[in-house]
């Protein structure tokens, strides 16, 4: 990796530091002797700065984002029974919600859960 | 402090506390990535909701082959494109995020960047965000986008050239 074209391909990652040390060393050595690539490096660094500032300045997500999400999850279990191990087991949960008491049960096999009682998870 | 991967194991078991922690850690980054892709605060909010619901329903699908952050951004990318396709079908144009009258100083700089980004294809905006803002490596970006590493480098090359040209 010695040509300016090859160096240029890696420069964005050299700017962010998300690059293997060995590759970074080769780029640094090239930049010491190549004014054109040094200039390109500076351009990319400035472009990245502007991009990061622009993205960072956008308003964050609304404060009700979590409330909206939790509403979609449905009632929370008030009683939980968990039998067995991570690999094989049975989980039964009972929730209290709006005068209803939904029950759900999951059969666990090799770390995967399959709903056997109640609505599908997250539905 | 629990790692993100540990939180996902708890979430797969229905732990809402773990889900809240993961939300607090990553909602901002998911939202900003979605905003870069959709350029609409409304759609970005929806992407955040759908991404977190997908995590709640499918936390056990995380196999540890990538960082949790990369996995989450991958889900967000898919959700963003799903919503964008629906918007296109419904012919409802997203509201612009750069509709700020007579900006000045630093704010003007950001508006210029946002306007310039608006002229770029989605594939170039996403690679710019993942590399410049999320600091992902070539390999991580390729893994997330499901394309070869050479394609990532090529897209990044065109993306930064086009962005610089628009800003000139």
How would you summarize this macromolecular structure in one to three sentences?
The complex is a heterodimer of chains A (123) and B (168). Chain A has helices spanning 4-16, 21-33, 35-57, 65-73, and strands at 77-84, 88-95, 103-109, 112-117. Chain A is an alpha+beta fold and 123 residues long.
Walk me through the structure.
The complex is a heterodimer of chains A (123) and B (168). By secondary structure, chain A is an alpha+beta fold. Chain A has helices spanning 4-16, 21-33, 35-57, 65-73, and strands at residues 77-84, 88-95, 103-109, 112-117. Chain A folds into two domains: 4-57; 74-117, no CATH class. Chain A contains four helices and four strands. A four-stranded antiparallel sheet of chain A has the order 1-2-3-4, with no helix packed on it. The longest helix of chain A has 23 residues, at 35-57. Chain A is elongated. Chain A starts with a helix and ends in a 6-residue tail after the last strand. By secondary structure, chain B is an all-alpha fold. Chain B folds into two domains: 1-97, RNA polymerase sigma factor, region 2, helix turn helix motif (Rna Polymerase Sigma Factor, Chain: A, Orthogonal Bundle), CATH 1.10.1740; 99-168, Arc Repressor Mutant, subunit A (Orthogonal Bundle), CATH 1.10.10. The A-B interface holds A 8-10, 12-13, 16-19, 43-44, 47-48, 50-62, 65-66, 68-70, 72-73, 76-77, 91, 93, 111-113, 121-122 and B 12-14, 16, 19-20, 23, 27-28, 31-32, 35-36, 41, 44-45, 48-49, 52-53, 56-57, 60, 97, 106-107, 109-110, 113-114, 117, 128-129, 131-133, 135-138, 140, 153, 156-157, 160, 163-164, 167.
């Amino acid at each position: 990796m010695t040509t300016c074209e090859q160096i240029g391909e890696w420069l964005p990652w050299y700017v962010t530091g998300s690059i293997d040390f060995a590759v970074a060393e080769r780029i640094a050595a090239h930049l010491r002797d190549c004014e054109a690539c040094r200039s390109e490096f500076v351009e990319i660094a400035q472009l990245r700065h502007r991009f990061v500032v622009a993205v960072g300045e956008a308003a964050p997500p609304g404060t009700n984002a979590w409330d909206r999400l939790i509403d979609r999850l449905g009632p929370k279990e008030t009683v939980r029974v968990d039998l067995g191990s991570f690999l094989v087991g049975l989980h039964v949960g009972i929730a209290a919600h709006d005068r209803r008491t939904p029950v759900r049960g999951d059969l666990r096999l090799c770390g995967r859960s399959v709903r056997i009682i109640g609505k599908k998870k997250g539905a | 402090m629990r790692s993100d991967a540990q939180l996902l194991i708890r979430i797969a078991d229905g732990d809402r506390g773990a889900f809240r922690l993961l939300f607090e850690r990553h909602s901002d980054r998911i939202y900003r990535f979605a905003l870069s892709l959709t350029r609409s605060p409304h759609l970005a909010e929806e992407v955040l909701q759908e991404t977190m619901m997908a995590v709640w329903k499918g936390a056990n699908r995380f196999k540890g082959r990538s960082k949790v952050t990369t996995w989450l951004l991958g889900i967000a990318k898919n959700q963003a494109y799903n919503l964008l396709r629906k918007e296109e079908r419904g012919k409802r144009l997203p509201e612009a995020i750069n509709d700020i009258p007579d900006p000045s100083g630093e704010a003007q700089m950001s508006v210029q960047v946002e306007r310039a980004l608006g002229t770029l294809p989605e594939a170039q905006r996403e690679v710019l965000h993942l590399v410049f803002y999320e600091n992902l490596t070539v390999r991580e970006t390729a893994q997330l986008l499901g394309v070869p590493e050479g394609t990532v480098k090529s897209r990044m090359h065109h993306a930064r050239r086009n962005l610089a040209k628009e800003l000139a």
